[in-house]
């Protein structure tokens, strides 16, 4: 496979889709038979705040940001059942992957989706009014069942945010990778190259990493941080991690 055949996109089956048992439906409608796309990687993730915040970084500061973070973390749909707070993350691969999946997902707003594109996945979603303690409506949450990358650039950022290189079979990876020649540890939003009590080891010498992540870590270590944040690299190494960092 090469060129367009290697287009990739990230799909998240969100907590509302899991709660409504729509996983099978989403997998069917996105299947190779219907879309020509195939799986490159998948994982079940209990979304922590760092990952949620990085994934939706472009929406920081907006009125719907906090409810959006609670939604993707599964706290809105399963407030008392942490064991059910999860999403399914899938990398799909194939020609026009981004456009094909966005078309099937449909418009962001489920009401618009129902009006403009009956039959799309998000037409099955809902809009939830959010109330304050005095029972007044103070905002809304769009429960739209799936996430789909909007552009090839967004797909690359998101796939590297959710997946390590080794989560994807070698022939299906297309972003450059590199071996780490250092230990990198993370604790309290800081990076260390030797072990700190309570820290989590992100990478050890010989481990394969996205080249862009290693560039970021190297820059931070040398006191020259770039555009990419430490959290955007660390997040995938903290997936399904239960220790506090
Ligand atoms: P994703 O695939 O989830 O990224 O959706 P999108 O690309 O169609 O939309 P966008 O990235 O702009 O927004 C991300 C998520 O924020 C959406 O899926 C919605 O849940 C939520 N959202 C976006 N715009 C609004 C808004 O105007 N109001 C509210 N309440 N939520 C919004
Ligand atoms: Mg988006």
Q: Which short descriptors sum up this protein?
A:
245 residues; alpha+beta; Alpha-Beta Plaits; 2 domains; four-stranded antiparallel beta sheet; three-stranded antiparallel beta sheet; 10 helices; 30% helix; 22% strand; globular; binds guanosine-5'-triphosphate; binds magnesium ion
Proportion in helices = 25-40%
Q: Which molecules other than protein and nucleic acid are bound?
A: guanosine-5'-triphosphate, magnesium ion
> What is the strand arrangement across the widest sheet?
2-3-1-6
Radius of gyration: 19 Å
Tell me about this structure.
The protein is built from 10 helices and 11 strands. It is α+β, with helices and mostly antiparallel strands and 245 residues long. A 4-stranded antiparallel β-sheet has the order 2-3-1-6. A 3-stranded antiparallel β-sheet has the order 9-8-10, covered by helices on one side. Strand 8 and strand 9 form a beta hairpin. The radius of gyration is 19 Å and the shape is globular. The model has no long low-confidence stretch (mean pLDDT 96).
């Amino acid at each position: 496979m090469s060129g367009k055949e290697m287009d990739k996109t990230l799909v998240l089956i969100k907590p509302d889709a899991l709660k409504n048992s729509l996983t099978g439906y989403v997998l069917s409608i996105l299947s190779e038979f219907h879309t020509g796309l195939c799986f490159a990687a998948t994982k079940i993730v209990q979304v922590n705040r760092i990952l949620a915040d990085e994934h939706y970084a472009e929406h920081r500061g907006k009125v719907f940001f906090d409810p959006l973070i609670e939604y993707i973390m599964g706290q809105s749909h399963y407030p008392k059942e942490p064991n059910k707070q999860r999403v399914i993350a899938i990398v799909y691969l194939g020609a026009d992957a981004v456009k094909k999946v966005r078309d099937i997902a449909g418009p962001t707003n489920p009401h618009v989706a129902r009006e403009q594109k009956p039959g799309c996945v998000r037409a099955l979603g809902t809009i939830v009014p959010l109330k304050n303690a005095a029972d007044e409506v103070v905002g809304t949450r769009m429960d739209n069942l799936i996430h789909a990358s909007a552009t090839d650039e967004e797909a690359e950022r998101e796939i590297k945010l959710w997946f390590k290189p080794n989560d994807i079979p070698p022939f299906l990876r297309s972003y450059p990778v590199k071996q780490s020649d250092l230990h990198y540890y993370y604790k309290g939003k800081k990076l260390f190259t030797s072990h700190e009590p309570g820290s989590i080891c992100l990478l050890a010498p010989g481990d394969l990493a996205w080249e862009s992540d290693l560039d970021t870590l190297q820059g931070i270590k040398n006191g020259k941080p770039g555009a990419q944040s430490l959290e955007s690299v660390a997040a995938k190494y903290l997936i399904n991690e239960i220790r506090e960092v």
